Each structure stands twice: as C-alpha cells, then as structure tokens.
C-alpha cells in the first residue's frame, strides 16, 4: 500500500493540529504523540503474544536499533537540521539508562521480580514527567521575558532574539514550514456577513462530493505523464481513505471541513478501534463494537442539525484526533501484512526466532515509524521525526517490558524468567552502542545532524546485520547464555 498520500493529506496535518491543541512543542509531540502512535500497536501485539514462542529481546531491541540508526539516518541524509542539544542529551541518556536497567533486571539473576517490573515502568513515567516539567518551565520563561520586554530598557535586539528562540523551542506557534501561505487559524471560525445570509446546508451535496474527489484539478493539470499515471493509480486508495479519515488541515479552505462527510465519519473510528481490540467479545449476543453506535450516532445527528457547510464548528479541530488514530490504524494494518510476508520468508528459510525478530520482523514492525517520521521530516518537521526515533524505541522497550513483566508477576505472583534468544543480548549491546554514538557525534558536530552522520548510521547498522548473520550461522559466538535454548519455528 502507498503510504505517501495517507501521510501527506491525513496524518501530518492532523498531528500538527493535535500538537497545537495540546500545546506541545515539536520535540515533545515527537516523543509522545508520534511515539505512542507508532508504539501502541507493538505494545498491544506484545500483550497478545505473551504465550508465543519468540523471545522479546530480539523483537524490541532489534526494532530499536533499526529506528535509531536506519530511520534516523534517512532523516539526516535527506533532511539535515540543527539539533537542540538539551533534548538530544536528555533523550539519549534516558534511553541508555533504560536499556541498561532492563538488561540488568533480566540478566543479573535470570528472573524479574514484581518490584523490578514496577521500577522499569517508573523509568518511563519519570521521563515523561521530566519533559513535561521542562516544557512548562520553558513556557514560564517565555512569559517572564515577554513581560520584561514591555519595559523599553529590556527591549534590546539580544533579548528579542532570545525570546524568538525560546518561543520556537516551546512550540508556541506550530505552522507548516513548507507552506508559502500565511494562514490565520481562526479566520474561518469568524461569522461573516455572507455566512449569515447563507443557509446552513447550502451546497451540502456539492461539498460532500468535492471532499471525496481523490484527484485535484490543479495537481492533475500541472503533472506530466508519469505524475498523471501515479495520481490515477493512487486515486482508488485515496478515495477509500477520504471516506473513513477526517481531514483537519489549517492550510485548506474551511480547514478541510465537510459537514456531511465529517458527520458520517464519526461512527467509524470507535467501531474499528473496538473491533481491533476485541473482535470476539460479545455482550448480550451483540458484538461490543456495535455498542459504540449508542454514543456516536447521537453525535452525528447533533452535528448534522447544528453545523453549517460554510464554517467549521469550534470543535472541528477535535476530529484531528480521529485523523491521527485512523492514520495509525491504516499504517499498522498495512505494516502487519508486510510482517506476515516477511515471517513466511523466515519460516521457509528455517531461521530462528531471534534472527527473525531482529531482522525481518523488526523491519516490518517499524514500517510505521519509517513512514511517519520521514513524512514529518519532508513536511518541515525533522526535529519531530527525529524525536520519535528516540521516543518510539524508548516507549516500546520500557512500556512493553515493564507492562508485560508487571502483568506476569502479578498474575503468577512469582518472579518470571525472560528468554533472550541467541541474539537478544547482541541487540541490547548494539542498541546501547547506537544510543551512545548519538552523544559522541552530536558533540563532535556541534549538534548538527549532517548527511555524513546519516551515512555513519547506515554503516553502523550494516555492522549490526553482519554480526546477526554470522551469529545465526554460528560462525561467531553470540552473547547468549550457554544454557538458554533457542526456540525455532517449525
């Protein structure tokens, strides 16, 4: 499936709107919203496969190596940028500590206790507390400096430049940096004289069909033969996406509002989400996801009766949450199909679970990270994409390990044994090396993410793959304990 139109039209604009709505800066949105979105499906998959044969270490840490090195390297090569030093130092240190602590808890005595499980999860909670407190203090500093600048004696060029820098770091203004338009976010919410004269449902069906049109006239006319062929091929996919995913984009007319289409989209997301999580759960003989209609249908009716076609309602930006969730679900399901194909290839070639986990499965599970981060970087948000390269692996490793360990220790009330597989410890070592390398090259380049650093990341990841292949073929010894048996898919 082609992710490009899905990311360009739905995911990136919706994520920017949600970031603005929650008051998050670019970096914080990357390590929270984007990391949660990309990592939640993996977390759910980990819980759903608790009784599976595959060890967790190669799956989670192998994916972490892939994201920190390869995905981040692609951002550096195609979209180099200046890194905010305090963010990268904080994230790299927390990720390094999390890796070491998880490995220590699992390897020191061979089992993980309930206390250790809670402490592992506490590391991630502490990380979230630190970044949110830092953002709060940053915004307080901006307010204090703004109040001082009202006094002329403080209104110097240096203080004004410092204020602009702090405002940019705090993310007080989030707009599309690749756009040439200057958009007033509240412009379309203002009731004009013409809007008072218009009927609430004026051009309702025309607006509906225009919103579903997957081919933009201007884009079609400006495209060459290859461009027209690409548009024609992706049009059916884009049409289906437009039916299900609401568009909230401050760069579009009426912010992408379509009264009829947005109203009928409300019931879809809760149904699909509940169906995904509990497709076999019934209450009184009725599937659980059908009960969402009791809430969403009245909301749809309310929207149809109270909104207008020419002006988006004040709560229109909330539907951006729908857009983000839908986009992540689409990416997840598409990536899941790729994972199954890669899994079949691994089984046919008779490879071990550890090898599949840190190579084919890691690549398949990280397609969502790759697509979303590159799409954001291409739209002028490389810092948000790169932040997710830390936030995603940190969320996956700490939350998955901590959540599973807490669940298992409270269920069995005894310490649990965590199989690492033949390549699990190798993945841990390379994940730590990859994270430490960020601290080294960032200080050597004065926190500049250059193309050469991207190439360095590719080389480091290639070395990791060489170790994995040689270890799988038993040409070299791995770090796996000698008494741990590797479970191989048959």
UniProtKB/TrEMBL annotation:
Gene3D superfamilies: NCX, central ion-binding region. GO terms for cellular component: membrane. Pfam families: Na_Ca_ex. The chain crosses the membrane at residues 60-81, 93-112, 118-138, 284-305, 317-335, 386-408, 428-447, 454-471. GO terms for biological process: intracellular calcium ion homeostasis. Residues 10-132, 320-469 form the Sodium/calcium exchanger membrane region domain. InterPro entries: CaCA_antiporter (IPR051359), NaCa_Exmemb (IPR004837), NCX_ion-bd_dom_sf (IPR044880). It is a multi-pass membrane protein. One of its GO terms (molecular function) is calcium:sodium antiporter activity. Keywords: Antiport, Calcium, Calcium transport, Ion transport, Membrane, Transmembrane, Transmembrane helix, Transport. It is found in: Membrane. PANTHER family: MITOCHONDRIAL SODIUM_CALCIUM EXCHANGER PROTEIN, NA+/CA2+ K+ INDEPENDENT EXCHANGER. This is Mitochondrial sodium/calcium exchanger protein isoform X7. The gene is LOC105230697.
């Amino acid at each position: 499936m082609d992710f490009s139109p899905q990311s360009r039209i739905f995911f990136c604009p919706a994520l920017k709107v949600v970031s603005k709505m929650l008051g998050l800066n670019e970096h914080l949105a990357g390590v929270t919203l984007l990391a949660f979105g990309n990592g939640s499906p993996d977390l759910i998959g980990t819980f759903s496969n608790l009784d599976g044969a595959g060890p967790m270490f190669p799956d989670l840490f192998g994916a972490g190596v892939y994201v920190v090195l390869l995905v981040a390297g692609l951002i550096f090569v195609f979209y180099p940028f200046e890194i905010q030093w305090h963010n990268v130092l904080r994230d790299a240190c927390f990720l390094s500590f999390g890796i070491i602590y998880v490995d220590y808890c699992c390897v020191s005595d061979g089992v993980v206790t309930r206390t250790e499980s809670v402490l592992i999860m506490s590391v991630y909670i502490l990380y979230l507390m630190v970044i949110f407190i830092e953002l709060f203090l940053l915004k307080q500093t901006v307010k204090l400096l703004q109040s001082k600048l009202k006094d002329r004696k403080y209104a110097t060029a240096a203080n004004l430049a410092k204020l602009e820098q702090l405002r940019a770091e705090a993310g007080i203004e989030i707009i599309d940096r690749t756009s040439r338009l200057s958009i007033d976010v509240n412009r379309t919410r203002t009731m004009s004289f013409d809007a008072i004269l218009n009927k609430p449902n004026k051009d309702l069906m025309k607006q509906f069909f225009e919103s579903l049109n997957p081919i933009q006239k201007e884009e079609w006319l400006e495209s060459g033969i290859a461009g027209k062929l690409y548009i024609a091929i992706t049009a059916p996919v884009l049409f289906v996406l437009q039916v299900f995913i609401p568009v909230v984009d401050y760069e579009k007319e009426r912010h992408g509002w379509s009264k009829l289409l947005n109203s009928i989209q409300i019931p879809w997301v809760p149904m699909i989400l509940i169906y995904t999580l509990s497709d076999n759960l019934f209450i009184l003989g009725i599937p659980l996801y059908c009960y969402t209609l009791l809430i969403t249908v009245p909301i749809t009716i309310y929207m149809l009766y109270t909104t207008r076609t020419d002006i988006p309602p004040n709560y229109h930006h909330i539907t951006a949450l729908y857009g983000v969730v839908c986009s992540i679900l689409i990416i997840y399901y598409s990536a899941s199909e790729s994972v199954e194909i890669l899994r079949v290839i691994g089984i046919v070639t008779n490879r071990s679970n550890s090898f599949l986990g840190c190579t084919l499965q890691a690549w398949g599970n990280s397609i969502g990270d790759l697509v979303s981060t590159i799409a954001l970087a291409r739209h002028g948000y490389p810092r948000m994409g790169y932040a997710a390269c830390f936030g995603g692996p940190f969320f996956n490793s700490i939350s998955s390990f901590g959540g599973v360990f807490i669940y298992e220790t409270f269920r069995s009330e005894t310490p649990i044994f965590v199989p690492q597989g033949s390549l699990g410890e190798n993945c841990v070592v390379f994940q730590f090396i990859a994270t430490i390398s960020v601290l080294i090259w960032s200080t050597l380049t004065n926190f500049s993410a250059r193309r050469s650093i991207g190439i360095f990341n590719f080389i480091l990841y290639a070395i990791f793959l060489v170790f994995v292949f040689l270890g799988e073929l038993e040409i070299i010894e791995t770090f796996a304990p000698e008494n741990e048996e590797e479970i191989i898919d048959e």
